[in-house]
Write a structure and sequence with these properties.
The complex is a heterodimer of chains A (216) and B (332).
Chain A (H helix, E strand, L loop, with lengths): L27 H17 L3 E5 L8 E6 L10 E10 L10 E10 L5 E9 L8 E4 L9 E2 L8 E2 L3 H7 E7 L7 E17 L5 E13 L4
Chain B lengths: L1 E2 L20 H16 L3 E6 L4 E3 L5 E7 L7 E9 L2 E6 L5 E4 L7 E8 L6 E11 L1 E10 L4 E2 L25 H9 L8 E6 L3 E2 L2 E2 L5 E3 L6 E2 L6 E2 L11 E12 L4 E7 L5 E7 L5 E10 L16 E7 L6 E10 L2
Antiparallel strand pairs in B: 1-11, 2-10, 3-10, 4-9, 4-13, 5-8, 5-10, 6-7, 6-9, 12-23, 13-14, 15-23, 16-22, 17-22, 18-21, 18-23, 19-20, 19-22
The chains are: A mainly beta (216), B mainly beta (332).
Chain lengths: 216, 332
């Protein structure tokens, strides 16, 4: 089995439905193909949740007068939020893993670092998981490296529980009756701090957050 | 009605062997997973932004999107993030609307619930009308999961009562399963990779105030102000390394024939080009094979590189080309 697929073959097997006459019993082969297709399509149904194309440094979301350092009394400065968006919940009750990339620049040319935090919508941003970029001092916008080196965020089953709430919807367009679904909604929030001196200004220029729905 | 699970499962197939009947629970497990895939919904506008956009004209600003909805979806939520001022956001020309006054952070949002039976890809306008100068920060749209599916040719739900123990399972009993899991990739699994839009119309007239533009005719210029955005396709068939996408551009020229193209820079510089001849905003499209995820590596990046999607354009000689929207989604 491949690394994070749950299907037998890591791909969908195309089936010619016209080959199966409606009053014929179906074969175990078909059952096996449909079962593995169901798993593969669930693995491959990963949705990009945030896709902000990179903009120039001066046109990004800017946060001025940044504190120095991620530790100590000064907290990183809020830059911008994206979403809310749902995340697929896996069989083990964890949200799908996320592949992330942050684009940014330093307006004044000294080191700044960005923190991307994906957390349950409306919850304490301390929940969820965070990815920290490598420091950049470039005044030119660029996609930044994940300081952790994985490009991935993994949220917990607790995050899924916090995020999952009944949300109003309709059971059909024609009847319009109100009902509800259990929907786990999250947000992506970006913060920044200075890594060499205080008073720096960061510009968030791009952001990508995409699900990986397979289960390693 | 077939209940749509709100959480995926892993369907077991260890007990499905040649020469023996398939247990009804295996069929039901597959049918339940199919209901999840058909009903869970897509993110048809990934949360996106072109950076803070100041909207100071107090009239309707139209942003164009080419949406690829899930056929079974009926309810979707538009979210608009903004800072300060007051605005009314409206989904489509006759759709629902909401008025809100965002606060001082790039974190405030207004939400519209829109019911739509639209089952195929098509152009769509989101209309934002400020009543006090505001700053638009971002937009997203996601389909709400269905509560249940009908066992018909529209929703493609599978009637679980036909999959009972001790009775033969006929092909007609699993026809919707065959359609949704065997061949109907358009119904499940497709991703929207990019939705980028700035106002193309203000106060009922075409506007060039926000659109990306160039007068360069000898070389390609990026539509996005900074360049590109990550975009990686899903694996469709076994051993596939690429995935087909369609990219729509809302573009126009002052005169002559301009060009737009989509480049995928990570996979070796493949690109696809289309002509732009309209002198008012009009959709043109290109198709391209981009990298598909490598499901054998932890973060899915094929060859360890980021597949980056870069829409570009090229003006007619002595003329200007404008682009106000880019929509890119998987099609094959």
């Amino acid at each position: 089995m491949a690394d994070w697929t749950t299907s037998l073959w890591g791909g969908r097997i195309a089936i010619d439905s016209s080959a199966w006459a409606s009053d014929h019993p179906v074969a175990s082969q078909l059952g096996r193909q449909l079962a593995q297709n169901a798993n593969h399509l669930a693995d491959a149904y990963s949705q990009p949740r945030v896709a902000m194309p990179i903009v120039t440094a001066t046109a990004g979301f800017r946060a001025a007068s940044l504190p120095f350092g991620a530790s100590g009394a000064a907290a990183p400065e809020f830059v911008a939020s994206f979403g809310p968006f749902p995340l697929a919940i896996r069989e083990d009750n964890k949200p799908a893993r996320l592949r992330c990339r942050v684009g940014g620049a330093s307006i004044k040319g000294s080191g700044v670092t960005f923190i991307l935090r994906v957390h349950p919508a409306g919850a304490d941003p301390g929940d969820g998981a965070a990815l920290t970029t490598a420091s950049t001092s470039s005044r030119t916008e660029a996609w930044l490296t994940d300081a952790g080196g994985t490009n991935l965020l993994t949220l917990s089953s607790f995050d899924a529980e916090v995020a999952r709430r009944p949300r109003q919807t309709r059971d059909s367009i024609s009847s319009g009756a109100v009902t509800s679904v259990q929907w786990a909604l999250f947000e992506a929030s970006v913060y920044a701090y200075g890594t060499t001196i205080a008073g720096q200004e960061a510009s968030l220029c791009g952001l990508s957050v995409a699900e990986l729905r397979g289960e390693p | 009605m077939i209940v749509v699970p709100q959480q995926r499962a892993v369907v077991g197939h260890a007990g499905i062997v040649a020469g023996a009947s398939v247990r009804s629970r295996h069929w039901r497990d597959a049918a339940t997973q199919a209901a999840y895939l058909l009903g869970i919904g897509r993110q048809i506008v990934p949360a996106t932004s072109s950076g803070p956009l100041s909207l100071s004209t107090l009239s309707a600003h139209k942003l164009g999107y080419y949406l690829a909805p899930t056929p079974a979806a009926i309810d979707r939520r538009w979210g608009v993030r903004a800072k300060s001022g007051t605005m009314t956001i409206k989904a489509g020309s006759g759709g629902p609307s909401v008025t809100f006054s965002p606060g001082p952070l790039y974190a405030e949002r207004g939400v519209i619930e829109e019911l739509s039976a639209s089952a195929s890809a098509g152009a769509f306008d989101l209309v934002i009308t400020p009543s006090a100068a505001t700053t638009l920060a971002g937009i997203s749209c996601v389909e709400v999961p269905r509560v249940g599916l009908a066992a018909d040719s529209t929703d493609l739900g599978t009637d679980l009562s036909k999959l009972a123990a001790g009775q033969p399972i006929l092909a007609s009993d699993v026809a919707n399963l065959l359609s949704s899991l065997g061949g109907g990739i358009a119904r499940v699994g497709a991703r929207t990779l990019v939705q980028w839009a700035v106002p193309y119309s203000v106060g009922g007239a075409t506007s060039t105030a926000f659109a990306s533009s160039t007068t360069t005719s000898a070389s390609w210029v990026s539509v996005f102000p900074g360049g590109d955005v990550p975009g990686l396709g899903g694996v469709l068939s076994r051993s596939a390394t690429t995935r087909g996408v369609t990219c729509y551009f809302l573009a126009w020229v002052t005169s002559g024939t301009g060009l737009v193209r989509l480049s995928a820079t990570g996979s070796g510089g493949t690109s696809s080009t289309a002509n732009v001849t309209s002198t008012s905003p009009a959709w043109v499209s290109v198709t391209l094979d981009i990298d598909a995820e490598n499901m054998t590596v932890t973060d899915g990046r094929r060859g360890g590189h980021w597949e980056m999607l870069q829409p570009e354009f090229n003006a007619p000689p002595g003329q200007i080309i404008y682009c106000a929207s880019v929509s890119c989604f998987e099609t094959a």
